[in-house]
TrEMBL record, chain A:
<dbReference type="InterPro" id="IPR003593">
    <property type="entry name" value="AAA+_ATPase"/>
</dbReference>
<keyword id="KW-0547">Nucleotide-binding</keyword>
<keyword id="KW-0067">ATP-binding</keyword>
<dbReference type="Pfam" id="PF00005">
    <property type="entry name" value="ABC_tran"/>
</dbReference>
<dbReference type="InterPro" id="IPR003439">
    <property type="entry name" value="ABC_transporter-like_ATP-bd"/>
</dbReference>
<dbReference type="InterPro" id="IPR017871">
    <property type="entry name" value="ABC_transporter-like_CS"/>
</dbReference>
<comment type="similarity">
    <text>Belongs to the ABC transporter superfamily.</text>
</comment>
<keyword id="KW-0813">Transport</keyword>
<keyword id="KW-1278">Translocase</keyword>
UniProtKB/TrEMBL annotation, chain B:
<keyword id="KW-1133">Transmembrane helix</keyword>
<protein>
    <submittedName>
        <fullName>ABC transporter permease</fullName>
    </submittedName>
</protein>
<dbReference type="InterPro" id="IPR003838">
    <property type="entry name" value="ABC3_permease_C"/>
</dbReference>
<keyword id="KW-0472">Membrane</keyword>
<keyword id="KW-1003">Cell membrane</keyword>
<dbReference type="InterPro" id="IPR050250">
    <property type="entry name" value="Macrolide_Exporter_MacB"/>
</dbReference>
<feature type="transmembrane region" description="Helical">
    <location>
        <begin position="21"/>
        <end position="41"/>
    </location>
</feature>
<dbReference type="InterPro" id="IPR025857">
    <property type="entry name" value="MacB_PCD"/>
</dbReference>
<feature type="transmembrane region" description="Helical">
    <location>
        <begin position="286"/>
        <end position="311"/>
    </location>
</feature>
Length: 233, 414
């Protein structure tokens, strides 16, 4: 699903240049649930941004579902993001004046889907994350866990190839963290490819494979025995 | 533009920020309102002044004389220059081809008129038949003085409506006899003058009769001529100015007056005055447009400012939208459309309000110089175009900024 070869990225700030990614090689197969771990400054967020086409690598190749991702202009990047990727953020990033339903329907709006169909799809995914009764509530009326579940539903709505989650439990307490992880595991069980950036070990243990990043290189990449979040719920 | 989803988005965001939307709207609406009212009044002034000038024929040349102020060719200053019948005849025949109506005038400023028990003081003017057209008088009853009256020096009189109402108290004055300083005149007509009451307390008698009755001999007080309008105002002004100079030169030569003696003979031209007034109206119009557009610019800058703040506030939202697959054009469209919508809607509101005010207040304005203030269809159309342009202008900078927002930066957690 994802093939990355010799990925380099550096940031330039004035005369200083910061080499963040120093040759990343890794593949993700369809249906995998991978966690990317590392301390802050290890380059894990940069890697996720490049995977999410929010940022571009200086060199190296990135192939997503057989499509080489390079030399994107903003328009094509936006279309690829819409088609291939679903994002889950630490701070949820819901649009706060839109109802849960409208938030979930947003990616479908940019696909040019008709309103009726959009609402149907969005309702389906809200039901899937267990928030069917909350569809007309604003994000401010939802708890943190509920917000993140709305965000998951939004990420799923456009039926993307890959879900990218950036610290999805970073803003949640441990109980709701486990609920969200349970949801993510369930989605993975259905065959969706998911990448999670986290620095929490117990969250990483709930994935199937841990990639350790340090100073811009992968120092460890090994499968783990998955801990089911259900055990904690 | 016609995407219903986009409109729903816009209404939603506007509804979320009611106060801000209303305040922005007011600034644009008041700009357009002021522009419309100003334009309405400038057309009102134009109507008023045009009507003032229609009181007399606008292409009128008049010749008056006073005393000389300069010695010339051995003659002392302070000589009284007196026009004679022959002067009038000379000008009439010399410039016959250029003149339309012509009349000499011999008048008594305050003539006591008696009808039965009523007496009154009015200005008694001995004139030629053409005087009716020079003054733009209209005859309400009977007739004006005619050529036969003039030839035979008949003692007939044409009175103004004011004289009629004061002296005859509603009775039919035609064929009644009135006396001026004891000399009887027969009323043959009643006139009204568009110049208003001031010009309606005159009475007119044939100049020949006036000269006989009031010991005028062949003296005349002044003469008036009208020049037919040419194709353009400028051309008319040119022709009448040439006539004016030429008449003045002839008379100065005849009466031996210094060429630079401005007081002795005054030949004046109302057309030139009219042209001055019309160019003044043009200036007033330009100033009003300037002020109005300035006000609109203030409003537009307000809208642009607010939109920039909106973009700033919605940076994160725009970042989210982009991450979810919004292409830059759709973001530009969203901001631009919102700006245009706000300016258009509030602008049209101001336009309607302004037109409404003119419609309501316009007819009640009772001023000689402002009449029927209104905005014609074309001007209203211009302002609408102006609004669209203003809205796009107001939205352009913020929309451009919004399009430049990078999702990675917008989404970075603070």
């Amino acid at each position: 699903m994802i093939q990355i070869k010799d990925l380099h990225k550096s940031y330039h700030m004035g005369s200083n240049s910061l080499h963040v990614l120093k040759g990343i090689n890794f593949d993700v197969k369809e249906g995998e649930l991978v966690s990317i771990m590392g301390s802050s400054g290890s380059g894990k967020s940069t890697l996720l941004n490049i995977l999410g086409m929010l940022d571009e690598a200086d060199s190296g190749s990135y192939v997503l579902d057989g499509v080489p991702i390079k030399n994107l202009n903003e328009k094509i990047a936006a279309q690829y993001r819409n088609k291939f990727l679903g994002f889950i953020f630490q701070s949820f990033n819901l649009i706060n004046y839109k109802s849960a339903l409208d938030n979930v329907a947003m990616p479908l709006f940019y696909q040019g889907m008709k309103r009726k169909e959009r609402v149907e799809r969005a309702e389906h995914y809200l039901e899937k994350v267990g928030l069917a009764d909350w569809s007309h509530h604003l994000p401010s009326e939802l708890s943190g866990g509920q917000k993140q579940r709305v965000a998951v539903a939004r990420a799923l709505a456009s039926d993307p190839k890959v879900l990218l989650a950036d610290e999805p439990t970073g803003a949640l307490d441990s109980v709701t963290s486990h609920e969200v992880m349970d949801l993510i595991q369930g989605i993975n069980d259905e065959g969706k490819t998911i990448l999670i950036v986290t620095h929490e070990n117990d969250i990483a243990q709930m994935t199937k494979r841990i990639v350790q990043l340090k100073d811009g290189v992968i120092i460890d990449d090994s499968p783990v025995k998955q801990v089911r979040a259900k055990e904690y719920v | 533009m016609f995407n219903i989803e986009r409109w729903q988005e816009i209404f939603e965001t506007l509804k979320k920020n009611k106060l801000r939307t209303i305040l922005t709207g007011i600034s644009v609406a008041s700009g357009i309102f002021i522009l419309v009212v100003l334009l309405g009044f400038s057309s009102g002034i134009q109507n008023g002044v045009t009507e003032q000038f229609s009181g007399d024929a606008t292409n009128e040349i008049s010749v008056r004389t006073r005393r000389t102020t300069k010695s010339y060719k051995g003659l002392n200053p302070n000589r009284r220059i007196q026009l004679k019948n022959e002067d009038f005849e000379n000008v009439s025949s010399t410039y016959d081809d250029y003149l339309e109506f012509r009349s000499a005038n011999y008048s008594i400023w305050s003539g006591q008129i008696v009808y039965k028990n009523e007496t009154g003081n009015f200005s008694v003017q001995g004139v030629h038949p053409d005087f009716q057209y020079i003054e733009n008088s209209s005859i309400l009853q009977g007739r004006f003085i005619n050529q036969a009256d003039l030839n035979d020096a008949r003692k007939v009189i044409v009175i103004g409506t004011k004289v009629k109402s004061e002296m005859f108290k509603g009775k039919n004055p035609i064929d009644e006899m009135v006396s001026i300083f004891g000399i009887n005149f027969k009323v043959v007509g009643v006139y009204s003058d568009p110049g208003g009451e001031r010009e309606e307390d005159n009475v007119y008698i044939p100049i020949t009769a006036a000269q006989v009755a009031f010991n005028g001999g062949d003296r005349i007080r002044n003469m008036q001529f009208t020049v037919p309008m040419q194709k353009s105002l400028a051309k008319s002004v040119e022709v009448s100015n040439l006539l004016l100079e030429s008449i003045e030169r002839d008379l100065k030569q005849k009466y031996i007056i210094a060429p630079d003696d401005r007081a002795a003979i005054r030949v004046s031209n109302t057309l030139e005055e009219a042209q001055k007034i019309y160019s003044l109206i043009d200036i007033i119009k330009a100033v009003f447009w300037f002020v109005g557009i300035g006000t609109i610019i203030a409003g537009v800058v307000g809208v642009g400012n607010i939109m920039i703040i909106i973009v700033k506030e919605r940076t994160k939202e725009i970042g989210i939208r982009k991450a979810l697959g919004a292409v830059p054009m759709s973001i530009v469209g969203m901001i631009l459309q919102e700006a245009i919508f706000v300016t258009m809607f509030s602008g049209l509101f101001g336009l309607i309000l302004g037109l409404g005010l003119l419609e309501l207040v316009g007819p009640t304005i009772d001023n000689d110089y402002i009449k029927y203030p209104q905005v014609d269809f074309n001007t209203a159309l211009y302002t609408v175009f102006l609004l669209v342009a203003a809205g796009s202008l107001a939205g352009f900078v913020p929309a451009y900024r919004a399009a430049k927002i990078k999702p990675i930066i917008a989404l970075r957690d603070e």
